[in-house]
Design goal:
five-stranded mixed sheet; 15 helices; about 20% strand; globular; binds iron/sulfur cluster
Length: about 550
């Protein structure tokens, strides 16, 4: 097996000519901050805010918080101020951030693909009940997201999380954001390789490490050894995707530079084979390139995708090997293609003869109470653990065959069905105007009503049609890769009024037929007209489709 151990060495930064225009790249000596975000990170390492939260702000209250911490460094602890209630989406861009700020926080707790025990699920639920007005959403980055947190409660919440091996460190901010891991790692019969230990090791070594706490912007990681590519690897900054090398066997290809929002780009394959135990070193190399060569002048260009687009994958690989790893990566002559899309909803056999059960809360909306009920069911039916998915779903792992029926009935009773309608299974929604300061439109509640209506109008839909509802152009619910990708914006209604609505991106997908949805100028729809718009497009598809033709084909 090739030796891929990372040999730390001072990067030489000699490979790439200095650009004509300063992009703020540290590797070229541009260490003077070029915008206020860079200045804030230079003034004080954002991870230092943890102690101020624990020992000052939580004791002295909201008004004691330094504004530079409140609207900047708090994010590194997974904390954002939430949107003040009652401000409509038309005002989102026109008000100063402090005018939108509520005195309560949203907190993201990262799961990083971990198998959550019943005790961990119960702890997550009890935090929602005790500190967050019973909120606890499952996000498409495998986080639990709370709302209505006050600063005084944060130390107690962290204590409960730490007791079950969880935390909110670097769940937001210009940092290594929560990792996506395969929900069926280690148990799926058709898995190529189990990447669990690699994700654990990346977290152990690098989360909370000040070498990686000042990145140009967010840095998203995904890792899967499952052949369905169940973590949306195309849309992450770095993805490790299971592959089989003809000589060396199972390992991971490395994909770099994915991201949506404005200027969406799919991650590009380096075409390499990395063994399991070298994954953390390669991760550190890719993150190091982003830290040192990433663009810092403009926030809108400060994602890895822009560097990858400018360099190309050949140069990226060369810099990674020469400057960061000190060794050459093994090329993989047979890069993998995914099998059909799998979100793991439903009942599936494990390789050990037991079963895993994927359940579908509606658009990830869960509650603290529901998580406590789920933990009780897990205990009652001896379920080994639960994982969150990249599709706002939950998967219960390790269910004995003779306990399946009882568990499924119990899940139905608490509203977590493993047999959802096609619409409920395939619709996601971001946070939206209820809590997000950037939002222009409502998303979760709108999507819930949409699902109910489409279930009524198309009760027997026999094919998956994906709907991703987003409250603004930031694409947190992956606007461009759904059959109906909905980007929230103000639109003009029939009477000429500016009202909540969506730009539609049609026919996008990840996986087997990965492509960005088409954005047609004419396909703008008011929020009120959304049900009828989707009904009309789907009705046309159902009438015109050929045998076996999927919606996006
Ligand atoms: Fe907020 Fe926009 Fe992201 Fe939705 S897409 S959560 S509205 S930033």
């Amino acid at each position: 097996m090739p030796d891929l151990r990372f040999k730390p060495q001072p990067p030489q930064f000699t490979e790439v000519p200095r650009p004509r225009r300063a992009e703020g790249q540290w590797a070229f000596g541009y260490t003077e901050p070029l915008n206020k975000n860079e200045q804030s990170k230079k003034d004080d390492d954002p991870l230092n805010v943890r102690d101020r939260i624990l020992y000052t702000y939580s004791k002295r209250g909201f008004d004691s918080i330094d504004p530079a911490d409140l609207r900047g460094r708090f994010r590194w602890m997974g904390l954002y101020t939430q949107r003040k209630p009652g401000i409509d989406g038309g005002k989102t861009g026109s008000l100063e951030e402090e005018e939108l700020d509520d005195r309560y926080f949203m907190m993201r707790v990262r799961s990083d693909g971990k198998l959550l025990s019943a005790d961990a699920v119960r702890a997550l639920g009890s935090i929602g009940v005790d500190f967050a007005r019973d909120t606890a959403d499952v996000t498409d980055r495998q986080n639990i997201q709370y709302h209505w947190i006050d600063i005084e409660s944060v130390p107690a919440i962290w204590e409960r999380l730490e007791a079950v091996g969880l935390h909110s460190t670097e769940a937001c901010g210009d940092s290594p954001r929560p990792f996506l891991g395969s929900p069926v790692a280690g148990i799926a019969a058709d898995e190529i390789i189990d990447g669990t230990t690699a994700l654990q090791e990346i977290e152990r070594r690098y989360i909370g490490d000040k070498d990686f706490s000042n990145l140009p912007r967010k840095f998203k990681t995904a890792l899967t050894g499952h052949p369905s590519h169940d973590v949306s690897p195309e849309t992450n900054d770095v993805s490790f995707v299971g592959t089989v090398h003809p000589e060396h066997g199972p390992g991971f290809d490395v994909w770099v530079g994915g991201g949506l929002s404005t200027n969406p780009m799919f991650a590009q394959k380096l075409g390499v084979w990395v063994p399991l135990d070298a994954v953390p070193d390669v991760w550190a190399g890719v993150a190091g390139i982003f830290r040192d060569y990433g663009y810092r002048r403009l926030r809108s260009r400060a994602r890895l995708k822009f560097l990858v687009a400018d360099w190309g994958v050949e140069k990226f690989r060369e810099v990674l090997e020469k400057e960061y790893l000190g060794t050459e990566l093994v090329s993989n002559p047979s890069p993998e293609t995914p099998i059909a899309h799998r979100d793991h909803v439903g009942v599936h056999p494990q390789k050990d003869g037991r079963y895993y059960v994927g359940v579908a809360p509606t658009v990830g909306r869960v509650s603290g109470t529901l998580l406590v009920q789920l933990a009780d069911l897990m205990d009652e039916y001896d379920v080994t653990g639960a994982r969150l998915t990249a599709y706002q779903k939950l998967v219960l792992i390790g269910v004995d065959g003779d306990k399946l029926d009882g568990l499924l009935a119990g899940l139905d009773e608490i509203g977590l069905t493993a047999r959802p309608s096609n619409w409920r299974q395939n619709t996601m929604a971001c946070t939206g105007i209820e809590f997000c300061k950037l939002a222009i439109v409502d998303t979760k509640e709108r999507a819930r009503r949409l699902i109910a209506e489409l279930e009524r109008r198309f009760p027997d839909l026999d094919t998956p049609i994906t709907v991703n509802v987003n409250g603004c152009p930031n694409a947190c619910a992956r606007t461009q890769v759904a059959d109906f990708g909905l980007k929230g914006q103000l639109v003009t209604d029939a009477e000429g009024n500016q009202v909540e609505g969506f730009q539609v991106h049609l026919g996008g997908a990840t996986g087997l037929r990965a492509n960005f949805g088409r954005k047609l100028r004419a396909h703008k729809v008011t929020s009120a007209g959304l049900d009828d718009y989707i009904t009309s497009v789907v009705s046309n598809y159902l009438v015109d489709r050929n045998d076996g033709e999927a919606f996006g084909e």
